[in-house]
Amino acid sequence: MRNSNLVIIIFMSVILASCGAKEVEFDKTTWNDREDFLYANRKIMVTDLMENHLHEGMTYQKVTNLLGEPENYADMDYNKIAYQIEVDYGWNIDPVSGSYLIIELANDSIVAGYELVEWEHYKRITSFYS
């Protein structure tokens, strides 16, 4: 009886551990891959990118060599660049939520900081700073 309880506990632990969000190592070659018009891999790579590849002090040129050209938006500050991570359209034609990687540049085009911004209906709900 005791062994069967242990087997059940181990089995349930494995199942619960596999239910979390999938994350993979950043891969420059697949960062910009798209499925339809959405980025296929950015959400599962962004944590590793921020922890191991993107650093304060990098030049703008190194950032664009790593990530490609940024997607800037009219409401961005002049010294910030953005990369779309994910957009959820739900059942609507308009986006309902999503996230962006925002990179702040100093006057000399050096990375001064970065954050992952999650938004909902054009309202910022969380930020994760470098």
Outline the structure in words:
It is a single chain. 28% of the residues lie in helices and 30% in strands. It has 130 residues and is of the alpha+beta class. The protein has a four-stranded antiparallel beta sheet with strand order 3-4-5-6. It has a two-stranded antiparallel ribbon with strand order 1-2. Strand 4 and strand 5 form a beta hairpin. It is globular, with a radius of gyration of 19 Å. 13% of the residues are buried. About 5% of the residues have low confidence.
Straight-line N-to-C gap = 50 Å
Q: Detail the poorly predicted runs.
A: 14-19
Number of strands: 6
| Mass-distribution shape | globular
Strand order of the largest sheet: 3-4-5-6
- The succession of helices and strands, N to C, reads HEEHHEEEE
**Helix-and-strand structural type:** alpha+beta
Mean pLDDT: 82
Tell me the Rg in angstroms.
19 Å
Helix content: 25-40%
- Report the β-strand fraction as a percent range: 25-35%
In this structure, how is the largest beta sheet organized? 4 strands, antiparallel
Number of helices: 3
